[in-house]
Each structure stands twice: as structure tokens, then as C-alpha cells.
Amino acid sequence: MNYIAELDCINGLPSVSVFWNFLLAEKIRILLIFFIPILLSLLTLWIYSINLKNVMKNCPINIRINCISLVSIYPFVSIFSMIAISVPRTYFFNDSVGHIAFMVISWQFYRLCMIYVDGESSFIEIANDTSFTLKAPPFCCCLPLKRSSISKKNFIFMKFLIIQMPFTHIAMFLVLNIIYIEDIQAFDNLILYFIPFIAITVFSGMWGYNLVVRTLSPYYSSLKLIQKYFAFQLVLFYCKILPIILNFIMKKIITTCEDPAFTILVKRHTVIQIHVQIQMFILSVWAMNLYKNPMGN
Hints:
This protein is mainly α. The protein has ten helices and two strands; from the N terminus they run ααααααββαααα. 78% of the residues lie in helices and 2% in strands.
């Protein structure tokens, strides 16, 4: 095997026709590569249908759209993970779609929290002069932050931290996908410069959500805001952080390439996406419990 062929066998992404011709010749791999992702997507969709039924039955009209949006992220990510497995060259595009969907839907969690408490002004009256602190993960220890009373300015600040995520990430991932389509080598070099900006905006958004949940949850414990927050926020962890960990582990485990149609990179992507699908199913089951009675006790 020459150097170019060896390189393609490690990092190459075959076309859909080459990939599926290889899979059709390997009957056992068809079951593993195709059947398992479809099964996981169908199971997640089944749980989603139960979640939809619970939301439509138990949710007041004013929070129905918010709850439906939040429980929709799990089947959405699962289906696009299945597509990423089936069409290897669309891996980054499908990953981007799931990522942007999370960022857009994340705003619905903030809206749900505000509807729960009858708006910012109403909560400020309830909280009265309760102390408000900006010390929350991930910036609880690295910044000199002071306490203050809860005010409109606090909510404007938290809202800005949250709402910047959809806009910045749509712009960044649109540019990255254009670069990826035009020149994959340029993409591999340039994405390193995007990572710090992606990380900063994500951490800022997480900070905003942590502030919101920590501020509201002591007054509305029956609404399970912390649990709902983690059930939603873990989507980002399993779609972004978990793949990095798995990729590092699989570099030590998956080292052989039998055919350029089933490269080492394709194998790693397949394992990662199946793990993502498993986690989406588990989170959707958790969401089923959380949104069975969305208004709490």
C-alpha cells in the first residue's frame, strides 16, 4: 500500500456509493452499521411520541411550544447522527445541524423559565431584596464577582449571555461548512482558530443558564428546573465533549483499515455517533419523567 492509499485508508471519507457498495458486500457489517442506528432512532422517536402526548395533555397552552421544543432535540440529534453514519462525507454538516439546533432551542429553556415565574418583573417582586451573585460555573472562581440585589439589569445580562449563542454559532458554523465544502485541508487548518471562539461563547451561555437556574430554583423547587436544565445541557456534552474523549480512546483501539471504503476515520465516526444516539435515547427517557407533569406538584 503506497503512502497516498494508506493516508486515505486512515483519514479518508468515501463517497456514499463506494461506502454502500462495500457494506452490501459485508452482510454482518450492514446489521451493525445500519440496523443499530435505525433502531436507536426509532426508540428515541417512540419516547418522543410519549413526551409529545404528555406535553399536549398536561401543559398549559402558554408553555406548550417551549416544552415541545425542548423534548424535540433528542430525536433531532439522533436522526442526524444516523444520517452521518449512513453518508460519511456529511459528518461535519450533520454535526453542525445538531449543534445549531441545540443553540436555537436553548433559548426556549430560558423562555420556559420566565413563563414559569410569570416574567422577570414578577420574580423580582417575589425575590424582593434577595442577594444575587454572578459566581456560577464555569466562571465561579476565576473572576472577582460581587453580590448585588436581583434587578432588571441582572436579567438583561443573563439574557445576553444566552441569546448570543444562536447568533454566533450559526455564523461560525455556516462559515466552517462553506470552508469544509470548498477545501477540506484548509478546513483542518482553520478550524483550530475557531475553537477558542466556539468555547468562549459556549462557556458564556452555560454561565448564563447556570445563573438563571441558581436564581430561580430556590423559589420553584417543584418545577425541577435544575433537572430539566441538566437533561437539556447534557445534549451539548454528549455531542461535543464525549466525541473528543471517545476519539482519543479509539485512536489506541481502532488501528486497522481493511478497505478504503471503511476507513479508520469512518469507524471512529460510526462508534461516536452510535454512542451519541444511545445517550439521546437515555436523555429522552429522563425527559419523559421530567415533562410528564411540566408544572410540578
